[in-house]
Amino acid sequence: MCRMKTRTPGRTPAGLLVVWVLSRALLLLCVFKVIVVPGPDVTSDVHVIYHGWFDVLRTGTFPLNDVTWQYPPAAAMAILSPALLPFLEYAAAFFLLAFLADAVVLLMLLYVSERQGKSRRGTWVWVVGLPLLGQTVYARYDVMVTAVAIAALLAAARHPKAAGVFAAIGAMVKVWPALLLLGTRRGRATRETWGTALLTAGVLLFAFTVSMPGAADFLTSQKDRGTEVESLGALVFHVARQFGWNGSVQFNYGSMEFIGPHVGVVSTLAQVLTVLAFGWLLLWRFKARAWQSATLADAGLTAVLLFTTTSRVISPQYMVWLVGVAAVCMLFRDSRMALPVCLVLAATFVTFLEFPLYFGNVVSSDPLGVTLLFVRNGLLVVASLSACRRLWRATVTEPRLAERRGPVPAQPARDDTVPTP
Fold first, then answer.
1. pLDDT in tens, 79-94
2. Partners of residue 146 on adjacent β-strands
């Protein structure tokens, strides 16, 4: 008798859960300062800035005239979320909610990999990749946004309207999840996903606008931002400092930025690169001829990589986005993003080295700090270019070549059975 071997969902590997529990316990010990990590206190944003926003937001208004508030209106939900745990101090509640968002992502990835027969590689990418960034993971609300974005990606195949809702909520919290919609399959899937996303975003924006003053300020809040010291463009000034450039580093718009001659030019060039990246993505979407199960996630990772790498600001927490989308890519066996994902994981660890461990070296542009930035940003550049090339080949070049070759001639059926005497 001939039996077809099929893969049946197995039990979750104990090793995966052990790694998750131990690594997350370590992150919690760090944010609660049981273990003190050298460098700047990454939890100060929660204790001071987030808590300050919390006090303002619960009065029914956005932080008006506060240049550090540069986020879409639904970000208020993340900042106000510690109110769900009123028995805890604000920062403690925030850290625990960030931990819960991390756990939700784990459960979603486990469900897809174990119940829907996807690869476990994606779950491992999240379990191993996230703690490479250190305690910054739980000291920013980006892990919450990433959980919503991952939900959008995982829902897209079977529930495009739900995917649109999740993507819109994520975009109204921190914009970038909107990029994930660029890879939706043309036709009905795009109409349903994009239509639902636009409707949801419109309803949210209207609701916040009529109920809280300052809801739309995020649209113009970043127009005067400069070049942040960790960005790709900042390498120009880190090198120029070695040759007498007389600019300086100052805390500006919520981050450490270069101030001085030609900073405006480099910032403008970064914006031009971002526009060109968006143009390439639109060209890819127009040229794409084939969609596979991994195309949505692969295109999402490519888009987020391009916009992160070309941004005037590359804050450490941006790596959380990349690790999250990379994890979804690796759930699919037909994903072409294995190399970009490995590069993202390497860049995440180097990011932990440059912030917080050696951030003082980065700010002072000494050889160690500049080297770390060259390595981290170089990894992101290579990952971006590799992702673009692989996405184009999988959806444009190879399908075009297959069309030119024409259909493969049908092979005569083979009878491998042994006749019964």
1. 999 999 999 999 999 9
2. none
| Phi and psi angles of residue 259, each rounded to the nearest 5 degrees, phi first | -125, 130
| Rounded CA separation 14/30 (Å) | 25
Q: What is the DSSP letter of 219?
A: G
Q: Which two tokens stand for residue 59?
A: 């009065």
For 292, the 3-state DSSP assignment is coil
Checking if the pLDDT of 411 tops 80, the result is: no
Residue 309: closest CA among 373, 236, 380, 238: 380
Contact 195, 319 (CB under 8 A): no
Nearest in space to 356 (alpha carbons), one of 139, 206, 143:
139
Alpha carbon 77 to its chain's center: 19
SS3 405: helix
Task: Tell me what pLDDT residue 226 has.
Answer: 83
- Specify which residues 249 forms β-bridges with: 258
Q: Give the span between the Cα atoms of 204 and 33, in whole angstroms.
A: 37
- Examine the pLDDT at 78 and tell me if it is beyond 60: yes
Q: Which residue has the tokens 């003190």?
A: 36
Contact 301, 327 (CB under 8 A): no
Whole-model pTM: value is 0.93
Q: Which amino acid is it at 398?
A: E
| pLDDT computed for residue 4 by the predictor | 34
SS3 assignment, position 258? strand
pLDDT digits (tens, 9 = 90+) for 390-402: 999 999 999 999 8
